[in-house]
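A student in our group prepared the protein record below, which I am reviewing. Thanks in advance; the entry in question is below.
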Amino acid sequence: MPDTVEAQKRLVLLGRAFSPAAPIAQRELFLGRFDQLESTCDAVNERGQHFVLYGERGVGKTSLANIISSALQNVVVAKVTCNRQEDFKNVWQKALAKIRFRKENEGLGFVPEKAVREIQLDLFLPNRTEIDSLDVQEVLEKVGENLLFIFDEFDSIHDEAFKASFADTIKTLSDNAPHVTVGIVGIADSVESLIGKHPSVERCLRQIAMPRMSDEELGLIIDKGTRMVELEIDPDVAGRIVAFSSGFPHYTHLLAKYAAKHCMIAGSERIDMDDFTKAIEDAIANANQSIRDAYQKAVTTSRSKSKFEDVVAACALAPVDEFGTFAIRDLEGPYYRVTGQVVTPQSLSYNLRKLTEADRGSVLKRIDAAKNIRYQFANPLMKVYVRMKLEMRGSHARPRLIDPPP
């Protein structure tokens, strides 16, 4: 790439157009998810209504939470990220500390000057080790402004008493402070698994499932990003990026960014298949560290060739049901595609069992179905990572990635 000021500007712009490492924070860069955004806004605008936004890892929940405030009018928003070390009081202290109001008081004397005082809501919590839902209510029911509190990564909370207190808070705020909305965001396949079973809050809690992005939405990310950096892209390359992404915007951003970068370095104005191949290598090298570590634990053995590596690859190619799970018998065909060897399901049972255990990175999760045992990737982003590794291996191991993945 020519070493010019203009070229450097385009590289900087590239990092803004495609951001695989961080959630989207600006409305103009956020694409798709119109139904989910509309549902969250409807919940905020309906007095006494709250919402829970849930779905798989990597589908864009945090990005949606980040841009909600730009879609709302006359609402003060506070967003906090939960972690497993915090208790109910710590989380609400963080949230309330983000809400500050300025109050003017008339001064004294013949020419009084107005005194401006900043009010921080967390200071109104009682000075006790523990607080409950009524304490939060007493602080918030006195505030006249419309407020939205978003609690992201709520799945990191495992304490059932904490979840029960949150459910109580939602219920009491719905009844006594209807101008306040609580939004819960987290990784889960159901609302119950995220916040527990609390029938009393069902009527005031809107459940918003965040599915994987459609091919059309992923295509919009590629189209807008490449136009921002003034590049064209081969339609086949765009299709491969969409297919590899498997509905996860993270991988769309990752692959498109590196493909565009290699195009720029080559001094070209059109992203081609050679740029895509190089992008796959970069995407593997720069994938999330936790995914790379888990994969290494899963496949590493003392032998030069690991059967675990082939089994993980077969799992990534296996046909799945509507819930993303597969049975051991579903691995026969994929295993043959990867290795050229015919196997029986029984010969893979040991490897599958080990891949659900911590010493193999727990890359698989066992689902005890009514009639038979099924499996799925514990982190669905791992499946895409393995498919990219297969692409680099090539030959008969390469999946038909031009087809929409399951």
